[in-house]
């Protein structure tokens, strides 16, 4: 099975200057836990619901009215290709201990996102179990 067969298609990204409140509304509206961050037509990071809480809300100097993606995002981006085998993408998620990966095409354009939930719906029980243990382990 290929990543393109299980991914969520048509994921949007926002700029690093996007207010946190707007990002939270996007997450809520799309029922997702992360939003990719891009600049100059390139992905540069990710904001997760956990980033907003752990790097933002719990920070002494956090001002939700002024905070932007740049203030809480995890820089750097890891992704997989839409034509990758699902097991390869799951192994990548395990190694990185991440719950979600952006999916790119041959032109390096983001075309979707794959999450643990997607893996759980389509992968075999052994692959799902192994991935859950690795990704959910305390860092």
TrEMBL record:
UniProt cross-references to Gene3D superfamilies, sorted A to Z: CBS-domain
Key word Nucleotidyltransferase present: no
InterPro entries according to UniProt: CBS_dom, CBS_dom_sf, Diverse_CBS-Domain
Record's keyword annotation contains Transcription: no
SUPFAM superfamilies: CBS-domain pair
Signal peptide: none
Protein name, per record: CBS domain-containing protein
């Amino acid at each position: 099975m290929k990543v393109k067969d299980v991914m969520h298609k048509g994921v949007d990204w926002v700029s690093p200057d996007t207010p946190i409140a707007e990002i939270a509304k996007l997450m809520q509206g799309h029922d997702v836990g992360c939003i990719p961050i891009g600049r100059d037509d390139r992905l540069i990071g990710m904001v997760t619901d956990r980033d907003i809480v752990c790097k933002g809300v719990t920070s002494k100097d956090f001002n939700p009215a002024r905070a932007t993606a740049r203030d809480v995002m995890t820089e750097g981006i890891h992704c997989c290709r839409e034509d990758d085998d699902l097991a390869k993408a799951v192994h990548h998620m395990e190694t990185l201990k991440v719950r979600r990966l952006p999916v790119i095409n041959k032109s390096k354009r983001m075309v979707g996102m794959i999450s643990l939930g997607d893996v759980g719906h389509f992968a075999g029980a052994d692959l799902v179990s192994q991935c859950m243990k690795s990704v959910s382990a305390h860092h």
